[in-house]
Amino acid sequence: MIVDNSERKNRLITYLFNYAFDNDIGYVFYKTNPRYPSLAWKWKREIAINMNWHNQDEVPFTIGHEIGHVMLGGPNTKQLCCIAYGTQIEEEKDADIYSLHLLYKYSQ
């Protein structure tokens, strides 16, 4: 039996965008190439989420991840990936953990 979780996923996405709004993070969501990544501009406190991502189950986590980049601050190492590769990996891990905490908070 296939379960349709789209309404639950939509409620989670709404929660995440409300969290961004409550924390002064601007956001846009768009549909483009399914392999084009979502982005965060920490210095502008803005995120852009590709709602056409090839794995739709990952979209809520990605929203939390990009929020995490803004909330955690620090240098914009995505622009320096060739110079500070090790730093980029740590920044991505921290954004992942932030997203996990947001999803956990929502599920409580």
What does this structure look like?
With 108 residues, the protein is an alpha+beta fold. Helix content is 50%, strand content 12%. It has helices at residues 6-22, 59-72, 85-107; strands at 26-30, 39-41, 46-50. A 3-stranded mixed beta sheet has the order 1-3-2, with helices on one face. A hairpin with a 4-residue loop joins strand 2 and strand 3 (46-50). Helix 1 runs parallel beside helix 2. The protein starts with 5 loop residues before the first helix and ends with a helix. Residues 79-85 have low confidence and may be disordered.
Please outline what is shown here:
The chain is α+β, with helices and mostly antiparallel strands.
Please count the helical segments: 3
Radius of gyration: 14 Å
Major sheet: 3 strands, mixed
The string of secondary-structure elements, in order, is: HEEEHH
Strand pairing plus helix content: what structural class? alpha+beta
For this entry, what is the oligomeric state of its chains?
single chain
Strand order of the largest sheet: 1-3-2
Number of strands: 3
Average pLDDT works out at 89
Q: Approximately what portion of the residues adopt beta-strand conformation?
A: 5-15%
Unreliable stretches, pLDDT < 50, 5 or more residues? 79-85
Q: Tell me the helix content.
A: 40-55%
Distance between the termini: 27 Å
Shape type: globular
